[in-house]
Design a protein that fits this description.
294 residues; alpha/beta; Nucleotidyltransferase, domain 5; 2 domains; 5-stranded mixed beta sheet; two-stranded antiparallel sheet; 46% helix
């Protein structure tokens, strides 16, 4: 091998030590496995304490027997744009923009946040969902709604046994089909605002509104106060409808909710709207726009 004897024996000694260290580390690794069966998921500090070795040795053993595992890189989630937040910040920073009449800026409850209000129908829609348990059947149903913020009208809703994208899409299709009959409806000038639930960030949901050139907006994660319009209606639905009816089937629930929403659109007097109903709010805007000069 053309090596000096000292080099040869030194290499043999190193290999022997490495083999001995490997066997020793293997025994420690097996002890780790025993403790993991007792306490799944414990970290290296607890393992070092139980086995009686140093933190440094524990990390070396873990690295040796887990090092061949490929690290899974976390997939960066796409950033969801909160258009309403951007508009609010712009109106606060440049107050002259309020005079253009596209939005109304006002204080929220107790003045702790700023809210924007649309100045016409079909300018801002918001959506949300409500979970409801039917005790008699021992099942959970999900109610998806879409509301026009200017008129506070319910534009579409759906009831489903599953909280999935198809249920949210059904409510969206219902809203668009009902609105296409109105000449005021211009989808390319509409903003659809929801939270970041899985049903609302799904590819099919985004593609549906993109087809109509509707701009999509999402609240920041964990910020229900950024979608107060839908939250307010769901509160009304729970207090004045669901809590007063004991339903025994999904079909019966659909009938009850459909009737409530018709009565709501037709007769519910909103203090925010000047004690008029959502339908009256829409007709008042239609009348004023027809009389305005072109």
């Amino acid at each position: 091998m053309n090596l000096a004897r000292s080099s040869y024996y030194a290499g043999v000694s190193i290999l022997a030590r490495q083999e001995g260290r490997y066997k020793s580390d293997k025994k420690i690794w097996e002890q780790f496995g025993i403790w993991w069966q007792t306490f799944p998921g414990i970290g290296y500090r607890k393992l070092a304490d139980y086995v009686g070795i140093s933190f440094h040795r524990t990390r070396l053993v873990l690295r040796r027997f887990q090092g061949d595992k490929k690290r899974v890189r976390s997939v960066r989630k796409p950033k969801r744009i909160n258009i309403l937040q951007l508009i609010t910040k712009a109106l606060i920073k440049y107050p002259k923009k309020v005079a253009r009449g596209n939005w109304i800026l006002k204080d929220g409850k107790n003045g702790y946040r700023k809210l924007i209000e649309p100045t016409r129908p079909y300018q801002l829609w918001t959506g949300d969902w409500k979970e409801l348990r039917i005790p008699v059947m021992d099942i959970v149903v999900y109610i998806f709604i879409i509301i026009d913020v200017y008129t506070r009208q319910i534009k579409g809703f759906s009831i489903s046994l599953i909280k999935d994208t198809s249920s949210a899409l059904q409510a969206a299709e219902d809203a668009v089909i009902n609105s296409q009959k109105d000449v005021l409806f211009k989808p390319d000038k509409l903003i659809m605002h929801t939270d970041q639930g899985s049903a609302y960030i799904a590819k099919e949901y985004i593609q549906f509104f993109t087809t109509y050139r509707v701009k999509l907006s999402w609240s920041n994660p964990g910020k229900p106060t950024q979608n107060p319009y839908s939250e307010g209606f769901i509160s009304l639905l729970s207090r004045f409808c669901l809590s007063h009816h004991e339903v025994y089937s999904v079909a019966e629930l659909d009938t009850v909710i459909r009737q409530f929403m018709e009565d709501y659109n037709k007769s519910w007097h909103h203090q925010k709207l000047g004690t008029i109903s959502p339908n009256e709010r829409l007709e008042a805007y239609r009348f004023s726009s027809s009389r305005s000069p072109i």
